[in-house]
Amino acid sequence: MESTDRIYVCPECKQSLDNYFCRHCSVRYPVRDGIPCFIPDSPSTERPDVRQVYDEIYRNHQDAWVDQGRSEEFVSYFCELARSRSQNRTLEIGCGEGALLAAMTATYKFGVDPSINALRRASSRSNAEWAVARSEQLPFPTASFDLVVTVGVMEHFEDPDAATHEIYRVLSQPGHYIALIQTDLSSWQRILLKFRQYAFPTFRPIQFARWVRKKLHNPIVQPFRRSLTIDSARQCIERSGLKVTEVITRSTHPSAPLAGRHVIILVASK
């Protein structure tokens, strides 16, 4: 097994690793299928086992989030937004199966996710570096990245303030954070959104049938779901020390291929 060679640090104490072993914490982090795992096998019983939950989601679903506005048009738009901020070292937190990161043009790409099942699929899509890790304990040295992105992840942070402080820590100066969030919808708004996705202006019966099947068979239930607004997301980001410089919505950017008015992109700088 090759040395980490400064790619990773211990997520707990941030000290350097020796062959994935932290001498300070006396912990060796396992590597499975070439993917290091920085989430303990036996997490605290006080919170859900995020590894187990997300492994189960990806065991039962492929392209799990494609029905949440991850169209080719959106991916192209988001990748261009990311490219305009950095083309060097990019980290995606909650990268899932790696479709978005695979489409990005950054020179060095890194992705972390709680699920090794997701990262196994991601590794077949891109030659990025992958690791099982929590957003609240990123296994990277300080100032490692020029850009960090999250898509539909911020509302699922276990500890939003801890996660955004970690994002601030691993960003270089200057660095950028791009966060897509989904604000809450009423029941009627959810129905209208699905109508627009699958019935009007284009009838998509096959995609609709797949969505119904997923809802009825092994429905996806994530362990954390926080209600976010533009203001609460901005405040959380700015408490870390970052400054939100742009807010992208259907209203401010009518041409942006966002799934609905509930989808917001916040761009922050260090």
Give the topology, please:
Elements: E1 21-22, E2 27-28, E3 31-32, E4 35-36, H1 50-60, H2 72-85, E5 89-93, H3 99-103, E6 108-113, H4 116-123, E7 129-132, E8 145-151, H5 160-170, E9 171-182, H6 187-198, H7 205-216, H8 230-239, E10 243-248, E11 263-269
Question: Could you explain the architecture of this structure?
Answer:
By secondary structure, the chain is of the alpha/beta class. Helix content is 31%, strand content 20%. It is built from 8 helices and 11 strands. The strands form 3 sheets. Strands 7-6-5-8-9-11-10 form a 7-stranded mixed sheet, with helices on both faces. Strands 1-2 form a two-stranded antiparallel ribbon. α5 links the parallel β8 and β9.
Any idea what the shape is?
A: globular
Cα gyration radius (Å)? 18 Å
Question: What structural class do you assign from the helix and strand content?
Answer: alpha/beta
Helix content: 25-40%
In terms of per-residue confidence, which ranges show pLDDT below 50 for 5 or more consecutive residues?
1-5
Annotation field: number of helices: 8
Strand portion = 15-25%
Strand order of the largest sheet: 7-6-5-8-9-11-10
How would you summarize what this structure contains?
With 270 residues, the chain is an alpha/beta fold. The protein has helices at residues 50-60, 72-85, 99-103, 116-123, 160-170, 187-198, 205-216, 230-239, and strands at residues 21-22, 27-28, 31-32, 35-36, 89-93, 108-113, 129-132, 145-151, 171-182, 243-248, 263-269. The chain contains 8 helices and 11 strands.
